[in-house]
Amino acid sequence: MPHTILTDVCEGVADCVSACPVACIHPGDKANTKGTAFYWIDFDTCIDCGICLQVCPVEGAIVPEERPELQRRSARGPAKRS
What distance in Å separates the CA atoms of residue 70 and residue 23, rounded to the nearest whole number? Predict the structure, then answer.
């Protein structure tokens, strides 16, 4: 099962982006509710390796389950499966 980046917890550190072996983590457009940049995980590409969770310094920003209602690609709405 893919991991999920919680849009409104993410602080845009991006350690997860360079660590991801399948390049499934992408920048969101605009900013989250905290006013910071954020990233989202493409559920269809994620291989559930957990590296993102291990390298993220922001506690609670990534959860080891698919939760599309907590992750957005943009400021407008949730990420959807392709």
Answer: 20
pLDDT tens for 9-31 read: 999 999 999 999 999 999 999 89
Is residue 40 packed enough to be buried (19+ CB in 10 Å), middle (13-18) or exposed (0-12)?
buried
Domain that holds residue 40: 4-67
- Number of domains the chain is built from: 1
CA distance 41 to 62: 10
- CB proximity list for 65: less than 8 A, separation 6 or greater: 1, 3, 4
Residue 27 falls inside a structural domain: yes
CATH label of the domain that carries residue 36: 3.30.70.20
